[in-house]
């Protein structure tokens, strides 16, 4: 049972309304919609409803999430592999469901997603994707040890690892918030 009531758009103060608009009319709402952002009454789903509790912080977090999703050099497949790795490690049903839908759209196979769901790195043909998958798995387990760094950092480079650590940290934050508030 959720610990956070859904906040319908009719009950939002001006700061909340501004954040709500950024979420519902921003990049997440453009193009193909692989998962719903709102309920039928307009209330935000998943992690987005909680952002309204502290609109200034929620806005910054939302902007970081949009930058991670739409402004990094990570390929769509790599991004979704990393997000699903976090969802599996933190047992985050919303992120798993939403991003498996996105994952299918960007070409992840059912077998690849099943392996990620089981906490394993799938057999990936693309070396860059494979390196990012191993690095993301290491990150969700707590750190990238020297052996993993030596194996994978030369493949992807420091800039990609920076983007990947930011993505993993952001989605771990959302997973924690949804777990604490018992968001489905």
Draw up the topology in text.
Blueprint: H1 14-25, H2 48-51, H3 55-70, H4 76-89, H5 93-105, H6 110-117, H7 127-140, H8 146-156, H9 158-180
Helix pairs in contact: 1-3, 3-9, 4-5, 4-7, 4-9, 7-8, 7-9
Overall structural class, as computed from helix and strand content, comes to: mainly alpha
Compute the number of helices: 9
CATH fold annotation of the largest domain? AhpD-like
Give me the count of strands: 0
- Gyration radius, in Å: 17 Å
- Supply the CATH superfamily name of the largest domain: AhpD-like
Query: What is the end-to-end distance?
Result: 8 Å
Instruction: Assign a percent range to the helix content.
Output: 55-70%
> What composes the largest sheet?
none
Q: Which CATH architecture of the largest domain?
A: Up-down Bundle
What is the CATH level 1 assignment of the largest domain? Mainly Alpha
Q: Categorize the overall geometry.
A: elongated
Elements, N to C (H/E)? HHHHHHHHH
Strand content: under 5%
Quickly count the domains: 2
Outline the low-pLDDT stretches.
none
- Rounded mean pLDDT is 94
Question: What are the main properties of this structure?
Answer:
62% helix, elongated, 2 domains, mainly alpha, 9 helices
Characterization of this structure:
The protein is elongated. It has helices spanning 14-25, 48-51, 55-70, 76-89, 93-105, 110-117, 127-140, 146-156, 158-180. The mean pLDDT is 94. It has two domains: 11-70, no CATH class; 76-180, AhpD-like (Up-down Bundle). The longest helix is centred in the C-terminal third of the chain and has 23 residues, at 158-180. The protein has 184 residues and is mostly helical.
């Amino acid at each position: 049972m959720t610990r956070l009531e859904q906040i319908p758009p009719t009950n939002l103060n001006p700061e909340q309304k501004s954040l709500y608009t950024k979420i519902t009319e921003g990049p997440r709402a453009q193009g193909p919609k692989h998962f719903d952002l709102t309920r039928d009454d307009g209330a935000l789903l998943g992690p987005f409803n909680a952002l309204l509790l502290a609109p200034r912080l929620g806005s910054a977090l939302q902007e970081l999430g949009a930058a991670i999703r739409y402004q990094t050099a990570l390929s769509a497949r790599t991004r979704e592999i990393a997000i699903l790795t976090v969802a599996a490690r933190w047992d985050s049903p919303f992120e798993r469901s939403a991003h498996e839908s996105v994952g299918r759209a960007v070409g992840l196979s059912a077998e690849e997603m099943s392996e990620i769901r089981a906490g394993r790195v799938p057999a990936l043909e693309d070396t860059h994707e494979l390196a990012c998958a191993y690095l993301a798995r290491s990150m969700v387990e707590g750190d990238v040890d020297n052996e993993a760094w030596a194996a994978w950092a030369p493949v992807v480079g420091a800039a990609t690892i920076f983007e990947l650590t930011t993505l993993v940290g952001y989605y771990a934050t959302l997973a924690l918030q949804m777990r604490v508030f018992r968001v489905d």
